[in-house]
Design a protein that fits this description.
The chain is mainly α. The protein is 78% helix and 0% strand. The chain is built from 4 helices and no strands.
């Protein structure tokens, strides 16, 4: 089974230029971007390898990913509105 990759560029391809700009010019965005991708990578690894972890741990990671994605998307929208 092929797992969906939840990278920001995959999920928001229409915002790739803004994402790139923010990664290069906004240290807070860059830090959250890295955190998002670390969490996403861990979730993907757990699911891909069918690794034995508690349901609570996996759910916590998924909730963290959603929160980070929401915060990043809000920053992307705010930047685009300011332009």
């Amino acid at each position: 089974m092929q797992l969906e990759k939840h990278t920001l560029n995959n999920d928001f391809p229409e915002h790739k230029h803004t994402i790139r700009h923010l990664k290069m010019n906004d240290s807070h965005f860059a830090k959250q971007f890295d955190q998002y991708h670390d969490v996403n990578k861990e979730i993907h690894h757990i699911e891909e390898q069918n690794e034995a972890v508690s349901d609570d741990y996996l759910e916590t990671l998924k909730k963290q990913r959603v929160i980070l994605k929401d915060e990043l998307f809000a920053q992307i929208n705010a930047t685009e509105k300011a332009l």
